[in-house]
Design brief:
The protein has 769 residues and is mainly α. It is built from 31 helices and two strands.
Length: 769
């Protein structure tokens, strides 16, 4: 499993260095990698079907509980097969779609990283590993959404998606830390055994809020949904892969994975039910008001994701079986619809429904794929979508009391809207008379229409033979989510019942409304009045307010003058430390612990004071540098007086180098200019005296505290035993403070990247100002 995950990263690395040398004929072969992983995962079906799971363990940072733990069970296998199966079709499709793009190699680098990250996410069993891959999917999707970076809309959409999903990732990290501390383990499999304790904890409410924020932002739930329609600026293969079949379902996967750990609690179930119901109804209705093919698909995707959260919230056996089926149902038909919309955009140059019609005459294979996806989306009999919608109605009707009718009514309205949206994108562009400007379109490449056909055929095959899929995969998926065996077999026909009646009503009302409107969307002007209260508008207002505050804050505290930075830092320290000293610390001086003042110490002190006065009041830079050098050398003498010759030699070396460097750099500069008046000098003098007084008081108080040698003894006793080093100071710096060194390396690496970016930046002459 580790090799399967790493292979995507290795492919990306190979393409990064060698992709520019590949010709367009070579890029379709990249799809063989996800296809090979798909076949590899298929080999585990018999084992998973028997109720077992496959584990891989490698101790990464065992002292912190961070391990490379991967687990393949029913839920992970379903997502793994979708990621690689649909992924391989998208890779082949993208090879033709992006054929003439100058940066096609870069596109496949990002796409490979995303595939590997998503695969690692669904296979990971350690929450730290989950978080690493979770963030990698956000970062790689940022590059994919903003792939056409010369367009302002693409850049803005990429930043928006990263801001929202990364913000949710921050809360998810907090949730994982809290979850690990409460359960005593960072393994998801072991957390199941602490389920009862976690639900009874006083931290349970905060814990699920953190997880929900991570999942809702990733899976575009209200009010975080607006990043997904904006992300349609990405190339269509990205939309088909990330925003229908894989990435946006990461939140669904996360909560499905943690349902055995934190589910079956009223807070968990009611929250998911309410948010999911509102999101699916809100987005399903909004889809009918869009005229852009990808915008319709985006809102219908949000509605479908809301449906999945809604079912997880219901939490019954039938609901969990329904969500297990609907995850795959949605992936098949939505990826097919996106691929269809992509071909239409690629060949016609537009996605506007008002301009599209009759394309079946020049795109027959594409029309067939769109039709198959649309009828599965509608839930027509003999399709997998029909089984999925029946299970949804069974789940809502299975709830108690009047709530069953409310939930069923919400699901009914949402399904009708989704049916119409599917027909608008999969049927409307191909029906009617073809416009004159589209009648001479060239033949569509095989790689552009075969993936859609295969997805549509799969939806039909699984709809006609649901028992095969149930026995080999779906039962294991439902068992993973429910943590018990779910014995509700999938059937093509359950006999006449209220569920069948609801399905017939859904189809009838949906088709009637579609034909009454002739597949045309409602006018967006009807929604204009609600724009001022939309989450996107309100978020924009908050963002602009924060930007104004940041601008004023920057002008005030980050004005570019080093002396003001130092004044701010020193005054803050004086206030903070001084308040603590004079309010909570009993100030006293034990004169018995102070040694007698010796003659050579007095001489050194007088020299230091004299050198400081010369440095402060001279008008020559070289004289000031010499004065500071004298202060440094006198400090070296003090170190020698008190038995620290090694420190004195270090200080001596540094001071010598500093003086030499300053002289070499500054001796050609002009004389000091007087920028400060007398008032400013008095202010700076008072600040300096106050800070010196605070440090002196702290030093005197240190004499009154008993020396605690526990830490010193620890390092002395363990430096050689644990780190194999005889120099205790070096061992502390290199081994015991390894994280400190690692952070310093990261900071330097970031700085180096910034410098490299500035060096590589190519700015046109008019833009240099």
């Amino acid at each position: 499993m580790l090799i399967a995950v790493l292979s995507g990263f290795l492919l990306a690395l190979l393409l990064f260095f060698c992709g520019k040398y590949l010709k367009s004929l070579h890029f379709p072969f990249i799809g063989l990698l996800p296809l090979g992983i798909f076949i590899y995962l298929l080999s585990f079906l018999p084992l998973i079907n028997s109720g077992q799971s496959v584990m891989f363990h490698y101790a990464w940072v065992p002292s912190m509980g961070i391990n490379l733990d991967f687990r393949l069970d029913g839920l992970a296998l379903l997502f793994g097969l979708m990621i690689t199966g649909i992924g391989s079709l998208v890779f082949f499709y993208a090879a033709a779609y992006m054929k003439h793009h100058p940066f096609v190699d870069r596109f496949f680098v990002f796409l490979s990283v995303f595939m590997a990250s998503m695969l690692g996410l669904v296979l990971a069993d350690n929450v730290w590993l989950v978080f690493v891959f979770w963030e990698l999917t956000s970062i790689s999707s940022f590059f994919l959404i903003g792939f056409n970076n010369e367009e302002e809309g693409s850049r803005k959409s990429a930043i928006m998606s990263l801001s929202i999903t990364a913000g949710g990732g921050f809360f998810l990290l907090a949730g994982f830390v809290l979850l690990g501390n409460l359960s005593g383990s960072y393994s998801i499999r072991e957390m199941v055994f602490s389920s009862g304790m976690l639900k009874e904890s006083s931290w349970y409410g905060l814990l699920i809020v953190f997880l929900f924020l991570g999942a809702f932002t990733k899976s575009a739930q209200f009010p975080f949904h607006f990043w997904l329609p904006n992300a349609m600026k990405a190339p269509t293969p990205v939309s088909a892969y990330l925003h229908s079949a894989t990435m946006v379902k990461a939140g669904v996967y996360l909560l499905a994975r943690f349902t055995p750990v934190l589910g079956t609690h009223s807070y968990w179930n009611n929250s998911l039910m309410i948010i999911g119901a509102f999101t699916m109804l809100y987005a399903a209705i909004h889809a009918l008001f869009r005229n852009d093919l990808k915008a319709i698909l985006a809102y219908s995707t949000i509605a479908s994701l809301g449906m999945m959260f809604f079912l997880l919230g219901i939490g019954s056996e039938k609901a969990l079986l329904a969500v297990s089926v609907f995850i795959l149902v949605h992936a098949l038909y939505k990826a097919g619809l996106f691929l269809t919309a992509g071909v239409i955009d690629y060949k016609t140059g537009t996605r506007d429904l008002h301009k599209l019609s009759g394309l079946r005459k020049v795109m027959q294979p594409v029309a067939a794929g769109g039709l198959l996806a649309a009828i599965s989306s509608a839930g027509m009999p003999l399709t997998f979508g029909f089984i999925g919608k029946d299970l949804i109605y069974e789940a809502t009707l299975d709830t108690a009391g009047n709530l069953a009718w409310i939930l069923t009514g919400i699901a009914f309205v949402s399904n009708v809207c989704l049916l119409i949206a599917g027909l608008m994108t999969g049927v409307k562009p191909f029906s009617g008379e073809i416009p004159q400007n589209f009648s001479r379109l060239r033949k569509v490449s095989v790689l552009l229409w075969v993936p859609g056909i295969l997805l549509g055929v799969a939806a039909i095959v699984f709809g006609v033979f649901p028992t095969f899929l149930d026995r080999n995969l779906i039962a294991a998926v439902a068992q993973s989510i429910n943590n018990t065996v779910v014995d509700i077999p999938l059937k093509l026909w359950h006999g006449f019942s209220l569920v069948i009646l609801l399905s017939i009503l859904t189809l009838s009302l949906g088709f009637i409304l579609y034909f009454l409107k002739r597949g045309k969307p409602f006018s967006q002007k009807k929604l204009a009045g609600f724009e001022s209260i939309s989450p996107e508008y309100l978020t924009g207002r908050i963002s602009r307010t924060a930007e104004k505050f940041a601008f004023r804050y920057t002008r005030l505290l980050h004005n570019g003058y080093l002396r003001y930075y130092l004044i701010t830092i020193i005054v803050f320290l004086i206030g903070l430390v001084g308040y603590r000293l004079f309010t909570e610390v009993p100030l006293s001086v034990n004169y018995d612990q102070l040694s007698d003042i010796r003659f050579y110490e007095v001489v050194s002190f007088v020299i230091i004071i004299s050198a400081i006065l010369i440095t402060v009041f001279t008008s020559s830079r070289l004289t000031a540098i010499a004065g500071m050098g004298i202060v440094g050398y006198c400090m070296c003498l003090i170190f020698v007086f008190y038995g620290a010759p090694d420190l004195a030699m270090t200080q001596f070396t540094i001071d010598t180098l500093t003086v030499v460097l300053f002289v070499l750099v500054l001796f050609r500069l002009p004389q000091f200019k007087k920028y400060m008046n007398f008032t400013t000098q008095v202010r700076d003098g008072l600040i300096a005296l106050s800070f010196g007084a605070i440090i002196s008081i702290i030093a005197l108080q240190a004499f009154n505290q008993p020396a605690d040698k526990v830490v010193s003894h620890f390092y002395g006793d363990n430096a050689y035993v644990l780190a194999k080093g005889r120099n205790v100071v070096n061992v502390i710096l290199v081994d015991f403070r390894g994280f400190d060194t690692m952070v310093e390396i990261i900071v330097l690496s970031i700085a180096a990247l910034g410098v490299y970016s500035l060096l590589k930046l190519k700015v046109k002459a008019p833009e240099k100002e």
